[in-house]
Amino acid sequence: MMIPLPLFVAVPLAVAFIVPLFGQKTKSAATVLANVATACLLILAIYIMRTGQSGIYRVGQWSIPIGINLVLDGLSGLMLLTISIVSFAAMLFSIRYMEQYTAKPKFLSLFLLMVAGMNGVVLSGDIFNLFVFLEIASISSYALVGFGCEHEELEASFKYMVLGSVASMFILFGVGLVYGMTGTLNLAYISKTIQLAGLNNGLYFALAMFIVGFGLKAALVPFHAWLPDAHPSAPAPISAMLSGVLIKALGVYALVRVIFNVFGVSIPIGWILITLGVLSMVIGVFLAVGQWDFKRLLAYHSISQMGYVVLGVGIGAVVLAQGKDPAWASLAILGGLFHLMNHSVFKSLLFLTSGSIEIATGTRQLKQLGGLAEKMPVTRTMCTIASAAIAGIPPFNGFWSKLLIVLAAVKAQFYGLAAVTVLVSLVTLISFLKVQRYIFLGDLPDNLKEVKESKGSMAWSMGVLAGLCVVMGILLLWEPLREQILTPAVQVLVDNVYSSKIIAMP
Amino acid sequence: MEKLLLTLIFVPLAAGFVLLFTPAKWKLLHKGCGLVISVFTFLAAVKLFTAGKIVFDQPILDIWQVKLNLLFETNHLNTFILLFAMGFGLLISIYSLKDASAPRQSNFFYGALLLAVGGSAGILLTGHLIFLLIFWEIVTVSLYLLVITGGTECRFAATKSFAMLGASDGALLLGIGMIWVLSSGTFQFTGLGLPTDSALSIVAFLLLMLAAVTKAGAMPLHTWLPTSGECTKASIMAILPAALDKLLGIYLLVIIVKEIFLLQSGPLSFILSVVGAATILFAVLVAMVQHNLKKLLSYQAIAQVGYMVLGIATLTPIGIAGAVFHMLNHATYKCCLFLCGGAVEHVSGTAELDQLGGLGKKMPWTFMAFLVATMSMSGIPLFGGFVSKWMVYQGLVQMESQADPAAGFWPLWLLVAMFGSALTLAASVKILHSIFLSRKPDHLRNVREVSAAMLIPMMILAFLCVFFGVFYRIPLKYFIYPALNIERETAIMGSWNSWLAVIYLLGGVLIALLIVLLSRSLLKQRSVPTWTCGEVQPNDKMIVPGTHFYKTISSLSPFKQLYHLQEKEHFDLYNHGGKIGLLFSGFLKWLHSGLLPVYLVWTAFGLIVILTVLCNIW
Question: Using CA atoms, how far apart are residues A482 and A479, in angstroms rounded to an integer?
Fold first, then answer.
């Protein structure tokens, strides 16, 4: 049975407008409803991955270049699955965690709006709708970052909003330029026009706009400055969503889709991606290792880890553009996309553990913590698993994707890039050793003697993600799963049959 | 047999992983599980050792030219080392049964112990580089998990060891990637035999070498060993840094030199010799002035790695065989030394040498085991260490026949090696005096010999030290020579006959005893307390601590500066790396001023650069 694709947008959107109707007394009903919505999305996403569906949905049965269409292919399927997993876990976590805030139904509503926006971005088949959904997700995330309404949170939210609006403006400008040059907004038709007529300077200008705009959303260095303020300020489940999926769906996914499937790869574009990736990796990780605020440290790591993803994709782009063996490009892109999935799981888990620690101790300053290993064994276990995963320790998921990226870099004879990847991985390891050392080892400060472990939904949602960190290696190693989830996504980018497939549709 | 091989590797790994997550209170389960599984792995290793060649090959992943095969192969070398590795695992789990100073978190201790055992088995048996890397990192993680059981004071040591070993693991990964390219797409290293002629292959060799020597504990990334030695429980030091890490590091080095690359005498072997010689010289000098028993033993362990590296660097059959034999001897005596040290710490509660003394009479068995192990380490004839060191020396002498000019440095290496051996003895005398001889401090009046569970492993190891010294032909002829494809009759130079030596030595001891007995009965003796001019001196003031033995050397001119720099940790790459990293990090933090306009300028700058590149406006 073909699932109507708009469900991925309609379900969260509808529930988002229902939940604010619940008052303070019936907020538990709103919580249940929101959780049901994310659970439904997860089931839908798993279902479409299982049946291996790919397809196009024409809204209102309008024919393709005229009407709005939603496209599901390997890449958007992978993104949908990632978004659904993280939003399910984050929503589960917020059942208990968000009790400390007052306006819970509003939070739920904004959360679901953000999910609707992200699902829309990854499904949208035309660039203007992509922009619209991107704005829905962005604007709800501005509000969520400032949800605590404290001084610092509002400041961070403001900075985020300014830079985010700049990004949106760039993207909109790019959309306008593209429309002017090609006369269509449908991604497939833009791509066809470009393939026929080639790129001119106007389109290059538009591409630069897109790279900067999506780069800002993805927080790649030097467009990253909003992230270390915004991600730590949000409530923990929202930090998990922002670092876990928002920067990927709005930034990396859109960037990769536009470059690979619309504009086509070329050597300078590939090198721009590699440069952005390496800068993000190196600068992000060195900023992270000097931090003493746990969430801020994690936020900088998000920049660094996104660098891995972009580096992998960039190596693939350069190899493709050079006309070398496409197998090397596939390997690099596989590494990048797999790292994207892995990062969304372990980073959201890390942010959830940071929330668990903050709610128990009231602080997230590493120097004020210590010796929590015995007081919070569950959180400790989860945090250790996630740290091992992000540091690339086998057999956890991060190891496999980093291994692929390093191997691809070596194979494409970018030895320097491989060395940088390994170095950044080492610094990541050191900074998470620091986290372990200052939070969980050592002596328990006197004011933390009465600390209580997180229970219930918080522990469960962390457990789900930690379990994924342990077993996700099989996505790569077990062939049936790999052929269902990862390989189609890689093929979408390498084979570049996106436009011809859609145009050939009846 | 294939099933046995797989269970030998994966049962300890799985059990270890599960044990980590069990509550710390279930001590009985942890101990039982640890003991049963280590007995099993030992028996399985014996079975594999006696069985013929086994190959297990299961393709796991084959995408886009990346082929991962779960490949295990047995041969003489790896099953022989495996036997030892599993044996050490078994001895440690017996020893830890009664060790009350064992860590409180027994789930971590036994879980990580099993991970280390399973990981080592995996490293030794696998024939696939990626799986070698995976097991290699599992062993690194298990060291971290073991060190953090030491409590608050260990958290720095744990972080440092993991960071340094993590760096070497990264080097290994990079090197493996390069070998993958060099060998045109295969990760199987058996009989690869790459030449070291291109820049890429030289870099790959150096990276792999760094990984191997760091695990074994040689310079330049050696400092994790003493730092963790100072605070960690002796039983932990005995199993990982002293025994398994040595076996694995030197095993990898042999594999690199003999299988992955076909190393010819030249600049690379010269670098290897320099690493070996520098490690010996530096570490013995530092070891001499240490005050903490475990730290001293750690530095000595580093020094002994130098012999193995030097032996391999000779590239002569006898030198390499000597290195492998020394590796086994070293693992045996060093494990024994740490276990004895653990027993001393167990009864006295301290490992500081100037708070110990006179334990020889109270703990005769420990004393004996310690004495035997020390003599083996110092290379005294009739003990295992002598034979293997002799073989290394002989390998060095044989370098004379090599055409390469770099091989002409052999007299220097030989000098350093012999000098190092003498200094090792000097440092050992200091330990023996400080712990077992000298005068007993008051607080040690009530100590007793440790229980049998702790003594038996020490005794077995001490026995092995003697066995390898007297019957050195058995391991050499039947195991080490075939494992390295060396002719069985490769002679050891000179007319060394261990039986003759045994008879001479026993005769000497008998004569000495006779003299003592005769002098006791013939001469009149009078024993009186020390005369202190009538003043009553407390017992503790009358002790001559061994820590003062080599003060003269440490105040001598070139050594004084050396020790000074060592005290300030100038030889510690971890510190330097950390400082550079923090400097860079501080600079970046300074750039992130939090001002919105600055961030907007960065964005604009990025846009301009990207536009320039894309639109070709140069």
Answer: 5
